[in-house]
Amino acid sequence: MMEKKDYQYINHINSPIDLKAISRNELPAVCDDLRQFIIDEVSKNPGHLGSNLGVVELTVAIHYVFDTPHDRIIWDVGHQAYGHKILTGRRDQFYTNRQFKGLCGFPTPKESEYDSFGVGHSSTSISAALGMSVASLLKEEKNRNVVAVIGDGAMTGGLAFEGLNNASVNKNNLLIILNDNQMAIDPVQGGFTQYLVDITTSRTYNKIRFRAANLLKKMNIITDNNIQRITKFNNSVKATLSNQNNIFEGMNIRYFGPVDGHDVDGLVRIMSEIKNFKGPKVLHVITKKGKGYEPAEKSATVWHAPGKFNVETGERNTCVPNNPTPPLFQDVFGKTLLKLALSNEKIMGITPAMPSGCSMTFMQQELPDRVFDVGIAEGHAVTFSAGMAKEGLLPFCNIYSSFMQRAYDNVIHDVALQNLNVVFCLDRAGIVGSDGATHHGLFDLAYMRCIPNMTIAAPRNEIELRNLMYTAQQPDMGPFVIRYPRGKGTIVDWRQPMRALEIAKGECLKEGEDLAILTIGTMATNAQKAIEQMENEWEISVAHYDIRFLKPIDEAMLHEIGKKFKQIVTIEDGVIQGGFGSAVLEFMSEHNYTPRLKRLGIPDSFVEHGTPEELYNMLGLDAEGIAKSITDWIGCSKNLKHEKLKV
Hints:
Layout: H1 16-20, H2 27-44, H3 50-54, H4 56-65, E1 72-76, H5 82-90, H6 125-138, E2 146-151, H7 158-167, E3 175-180, H8 191-199, H9 203-218, H10 227-242, H11 247-250, E4 254-260, H12 264-274, E5 281-286, H13 294-298, H14 329-343, E6 347-351, H15 361-366, E7 371-373, H16 378-390, E8 394-398, H17 401-404, H18 408-416, E9 423-426, H19 444-449, E10 455-457, H20 462-472, E11 480-483, E12 507-510, E13 515-519, H21 523-538, E14 542-546, E15 549-551, H22 555-564, E16 567-575, H23 580-590, E17 596-602, H24 612-619, H25 623-634
Parallel strand pairs: 1-2, 2-3, 3-5, 4-5, 6-7, 6-8, 8-9, 9-11, 10-11, 13-14, 13-16, 16-17
Antiparallel strand pairs: 10-15, 12-14
């Protein structure tokens, strides 16, 4: 249970109605309370810290001014919504945040009516909010406000600009709050970031224009009908005075700001004044990631999601093992990429805003001119890589598995269709843990398998990952996918000499006579443990094959298996429909093999958040679950414990 501390205000706020009952001059104290609550809770139950500290005042102001949940608030990216959850009735459950069966770390309508739209990735808020705003007008809901709060790098995503473009022409009353902290997880890259910085030079102009517009409106000199013509004239004057065009006003979206995102009274005042203005509008808010907690302010990247820490000292709980432990797969990738790049000058590193998350920082530090952080723009990352490959370079494009879903058309149209040698390294494949349904990498095997020209491989351990990366940079490999999980591997001594692997060649890890288990990727580890358990308990002989390549699949090995075994089990940490098991089933059918075949993997449903161990147990994909599924399927019982399996 959550420790009940004496928070003067937060302990008494159970909904935004309670917040509105507090006097406006007390709001700074409310913000201090909320900030301390977030620090205390995240120190014990790890989650996203820096981004949530940066929007405390903004969160309080939004719920003070707007009538939620009737007014729709969409948080983008979703990991900046902790304060929102705490103020909307989930304070006493917040200790379960990101835990199995507890609160989700992102907004989800399944959890609360205050979560207007599900947001886990980024850059979706403007499009979704625009749809809601247009719908409200069509339904003649004249008193409903729709607000998109976009920040933490989300404005670098292409979808945000598509939404802006459409908002400029469709009739709507959308308010876009741009939370500008110049950060995602790592510092945001790109010209638009500098543009937002440059806009701050026009602060005086915006104050004068805002006050003048209010005065003229009260005097009935301007109306909502003629405001667009006046806005165009103002834009021309502003461009002349500031020697700079405003991209928002250039699209006829009214721009207010920039304003201090940590002045809660100022935020309440300006939101109260502009919320009922007709037409699309942008409020540009300047915030500091990690605001109010010195360690987080000084090192925003580290304190984005710091794990457990001591609130008083700022010391993070980093366990130093007595003995060497296996590395993180992402570190194996990062260090191997640097080693390969040092010997192959064609290799380039591309990542959409995740250099530290995927450990491309190793190469970035040594070879900064050959690493490109393109911002939260996965589709662009893929097509940018395709352009490089077309000119003879060898891009290693690292995108989290679930984020790659956003670039699917780019993979097909720009890479596979032209058979370009782009190496897609899909980090966080499979179950990722407490980030939950929006982040699990469960679909890549299925959605990549149907694309022509594609090589798809999954290493079962760190050494295999290195060998696959080495293989992918050999000449004329075409589009090459390597998918690997989040977290640590199993091998301490992983720095072995690398070698090229034969494409479409799997490996028999264990001979057997009664049953064949086929795995791909790191599911081999759980399968090996399950096999030991089954053979010890039931005295059956189980063969184990690591297929390694989903495409092209090892047909010679599958012919051998089809001829020998009458019972086959496939195991994968991806969706069953269309994935690895489906590929094996299709092969057996096409070649007239008739074994009983059981597919183990992710069922046709989205998987919630929790630790990987909890989720694999829930899904029956841990060693015990695999053993039980198989023995139930083949009809083992206590009566058969000492009998040979009959098939």
